[in-house]
Structures
1.
Amino acid sequence: TYNGTWKVDRSENYEKFMEQMGVNMVKRKLAAHDNLKITLEQTGDKFVVKEASSFRTLDMEFTLGVTFEYALADGTMLSGSWGMEGDMMKGTFTRKDNGKVLKTTRAIVGEELVQSYSYDGVEAKRIFKRG
Ligand code: MYR
């Protein structure tokens, strides 16, 4: 189950990924230490998400397979949806400003939640521990 609170523990290639996303260097440095914490609460197809970081706090909800909009911390708007493939969450989102696609997955690996990101040929991971 994805339910619970997850604190980012480490990231792989996340700075390169943010660079490809067009995030400037100052913000990348800050974002590398954003202390991101995500709380997920799934009921059937519905997820309630609480996000907290050094940038912002955000409460939202989505339903698997249903398109919603999501603003990144810098205001970049995404539109897309999450789906479930087996035990893995798979999200496909489109940037509203340039039409490019951002793909993301979430999987529980051992005791950790591993989120992958892919955009414009660059892949990254952030790995969360229960907290
Ligand atoms: C959620 O389930 O947490 C809410 C919806 C997430 C949508 C996709 C998230 C992509 C985040 C990419 C971060 C990029 C930073 C430059």
Note: The mean pLDDT is 97.
2.
Amino acid sequence: MRSTQARHEEYFSFLRSVSLLKDLPEEKLAKIVDCLEIDYFDKGEYIIREGEEGNTFFIIAKGEVSVTQSTEGYSEPLEIKILGVGDYFGEKALISEDVRSANIIAKENDTQCLVVDRDNFNQMVGTYEELQAYLREYVEQLSINDERRIAA
Ligand code: WNU
């Protein structure tokens, strides 16, 4: 079996490659690795459901996910984005203190996500002003996009 040490190093260097986290200090990144959980999803499985409460932030370590959202005038949610390895999602409910604003659905079997809970997310983002400003702006933009799209 792979050692905890090897696993730690693997996720550490993966997180370093995630653009959002590239400037975080080493000890902060190491702490995130310590607090991570890994969740596995099969094709078609919902990782996030629009309208539900959510307390977690996700980083894709393997596979692809589809972002869909209910839209006025359509009976089914429309696909608005596809995300892949190194992309992240779920920040909006945490930052806006709102329910989930879109569905996230695994597009492949064995899609793997690193999961950070709200407390660790706040520690990761909260103490790092640039990161916080970046995400806040991004989330604001998402709300504007939603309105344009006439998200329900
Ligand atoms: C979009 N509108 C909404 C994406 C991922 C990360 C960033 C965009 Cl920084 P949540 C549902 C999640 C939401 C976002 C993600 O879906 N999402 C979007 C949109 O146009 N959400 N409302 N595009 S991909 C994406 C920016 O992460 O967070 O907790 O759950 O509401």
Note: Strands lie at 37-41, 46-48, 56-62, 65-69, 78-83, 88-89, 103-106, 111-117.
